[in-house]
Automatic annotation (TrEMBL):
Family note: Belongs to the NAD(P)-dependent epimerase/dehydratase family.
Gene3D superfamilies found in the cross-reference section: NAD(P)-binding Rossmann-like Domain (3.40.50.720), UDP-galactose 4-epimerase, domain 1 (3.90.25.10)
Annotated protein name in UniProt: UDP-glucose 4-epimerase
Keywords, alphabetical: Carbohydrate metabolism, Galactose metabolism, Isomerase, NAD
Gene: galE_2
Length: 330
């Protein structure tokens, strides 16, 4: 089987992709700084602790492992933090990726799957959002992802690499076997925050903005189960290994839920009527983001298995209930 280098493979999404690759027999090597990742989350292959900004170490790892492809997840992802600390995001997300591409070139690796984001669309005019929609980010996180996509397009145009850029919408849930899930204590995702509030680990759940142009005034997002997203990565890898040309795909279900709908579902799943606090809007939040994902279904044959909001929340809730025991045992 092919060899795959996974940057950021000890993080939330990366670790689920490493699991999916390992289960399918791929040889996997994770390269992660462990700033937000966890060694216990890497279920298959070896882990090398290193930073994307350490080009010498990254080049050495690529030359020694000789991967057939790279999956790149190592990015900062918190939108409000990107607004407050833009330089942090441009250095890691853009410069780090440039280092990776340079090291791939030196190591004769020409296939990359890039972890992008719906944040590249900004406030889209068309909902659901197709891949052809203009890229108009409204925060530094989104700009950092759009910048990398521009670099990939230019490098691919001259034959430097073949790539697949997967634009995620809102990723949630956890490994249904209960082995891995969101490990960060300060995870920013709504569903994670909701279930941790239900578990009594937070005093309340904040709702940022109730005056958006949506049915109940709160933001609408398209939530995708992390295992369906991992499956999309495996399909993208197979596509490139079979000689596929560079492509961009949205990863979402094509339906959206308001923040209040997610909260209601979380209360139903957990059985806890946890407290909610209403606050002002956060900078950098678009009102609605819902994916047009017909392209990935048609081109890669992606068939989501877990398109159910309560099911997504249930998997996250089951993980949260055992998370501390899992962490303590590892």
């Amino acid at each position: 089987m092919a060899k795959v280098l996974v940057t950021g493979g000890a993080g939330y999404i990366g670790s689920h992709v490493v699991k999916a690759l390992g289960e399918r027999g791929y040889q996997v090597l994770t390269y992660d700084s462990l700033i937000t990742g966890h060694p216990w989350a890497v279920l298959y292959g070896d882990l090398v602790v290193g930073d994307l900004l350490d080009a010498a170490k990254l080049e050495e790892v690529i030359r020694e492992f000789r991967p057939d492809a790279v999956m790149h997840f190592a990015a900062h992802i918190v939108v409000p933090e990107s607004v407050a600390q833009p330089l942090k995001y441009y250095i890691n997300n853009v410069q780090g990726t440039l280092n990776l591409l340079d090291c791939m070139k030196k190591g004769w690796v020409d296939k990359l799957i890039f972890s992008s984001s719906a944040a590249v669309y900004g406030i889209p005019e068309q909902i659901p959002v197709p891949e052809e929609a203009p890229l108009n980010p409204i925060n530094p996180y989104g700009y950092s992802k759009a910048m990398v996509e521009r670099v990939l397009q230019d490098v691919s145009a001259v034959g430097g690499i073949s790539y697949v850029s997967l634009r995620y919408f809102n990723v949630a849930g956890a490994d249904r076997d209960g082995r891995i899930g969101e490990g960060k204590e300060d995870a920013p995702h709504l569903i994670t925050l909701a279930i941790r509030t239900a578990a009594g680990k937070r005093p309340y759940l904040s709702v940022y903005g109730t005056d958006y142009p949506t049915p109940d005034g709160t933001c609408i997002r398209d939530y995708i189960h992390v295992e369906d997203l991992a499956a999309a990565h495996v399909l993208a890898l197979e596509y490139l290994l079979d000689g596929g040309r560079s492509e961009v795909f949205n990863c979402g279900y094509g339906r959206g839920y308001t923040v209040l709908e997610v909260i209601a579902a979380a209360k139903k799943v957990t059985g806890v009527d946890f407290p909610v606090r209403y606050e002002g809007r956060r900078p950098g939040d678009p009102p609605v983001l819902v994916a047009d994902a017909k392209k990935i279904r048609a081109r890669l044959g992606w068939k989501p298995l877990y398109d159910d909001l309560e099911g997504i929340i249930y998997s996250a809730w089951q993980w949260e209930r055992k998370r501390e025991k899992v962490l303590a045992g590892r």
